[in-house]
């Protein structure tokens, strides 16, 4: 295992090195420029579209509603990365990591919009008549690169077990043990049973569950987090100022700085955890957005804008600003991950703060397991066909138990490291496809804008 993790560490250093981080952010910047900064142009329309279409029947082809697809995608992105991952970025890189998370999210909004729009444009039906789409289908149909499509599907199939399952099950177990003293094996079995009841019903049941769960869990956590921040409202400007200042200046000059903080770590950890949280550039969320009922690919792409905004700009910011304003980052330098966030909540809200954070993390992680199941299954179906789905379901349920039972320490560190590597391996071919098809995306956006102007679509 040590030799394997050493190899993984070497590969991780390549896939999350400066070239990959530059490619991730650079792709978002390039797409933002050539598409006329849709994260700004469509900002008001984004809220009108998402909030105005809840519960309404959409026009067009697809399997689930646009909001249902958004709910599954948000279920996948809003997970332990928002609580444990964001806190880990601060612990390793200092306050400046928050600034780089924001930068990643702002340009990542356009990246997510592009990959979602292209996935809808090049989707197809499988043998059972269900819509399937995503980066692998885009690569095959639009680029004719079936080998690259197969590679992406392969990485997705196995990355899902880490980022979307084992880490989330482990986070759920830790949260429930910290907050309520529930043994990890009990949590693991409970999570496995609940997940099984949902995924057996396929995408429609996953969509039905997440449509109710995601809004509730987001509001629940946001209210709790805002309560922590409001109690230290006078320190919010200083926290934001530190995030910006120490993104470019030596964080070791900050009072109470923790050994190891540097501008490089702030940048790399901020970008890596930002991407881990909102998944912009990974090519994961397009696999569910491609199943949405919509009348134009870019309309569904706008839901991708909202997804990144809500995940990182709102929820990750609440976590990190809560940690910074309570002084937990420098006051408890030995803490990281979920424990750092939990301590920040507990400092202000006492025991109820522990309950809010624990339940929030458990719900976030559980919903991510549901959403990522669809991504893993989509990758597996692309390679092996529909016959693989029963096998994949059984493996998925088993990993829920193993992940929860594994405990923290070395096990959790290894799973995080493997997941980071798999994410990077997913991102590389996806970003190549996005850049390759940037002109196609520009045509789609132009067509969408013209049809909205003429009133042929609203």
Would you summarize the structure shown here?
By secondary structure, this protein is mainly alpha-helical.
Please explain how this structure is put together.
The chain is mainly alpha-helical and about 450 residues long. The protein has one domain: Sodium/glucose cotransporter. It has 21 helices and two strands. A two-stranded antiparallel sheet has the order 1-2. The longest helix is centred in the middle third of the chain and has 35 residues. The model has no long low-confidence stretch (mean pLDDT about 90).
How much helix is in the residues? over 70%
Q: Tell me the CATH topology.
A: Sodium/glucose cotransporter
Number of helices: 21
Uncertain runs: none
Judged by helices, strands and strand pairing, the structural class is mainly alpha
Oligomer: single chain
- How many domain regions? 1
Shape: globular
Characterize the largest beta sheet: strand count, sense, and whether it forms a barrel: 2 strands, antiparallel
Element string (H = helix, E = strand) = HHHHHHHEEHHHHHHHHHHHHHH
Proportion of β residues? under 5%
Mean pLDDT: 88
Name the CATH architecture.
Answer: Up-down Bundle
β-strand number: 2
Class, according to the CATH hierarchy?
Answer: Mainly Alpha
Spatial ordering of strands, largest sheet: 1-2
Radius of gyration: 21 Å
Distance between the termini: 55 Å
What key attributes describe this structure?
458 residues; mainly alpha; Sodium/glucose cotransporter; two-stranded antiparallel ribbon
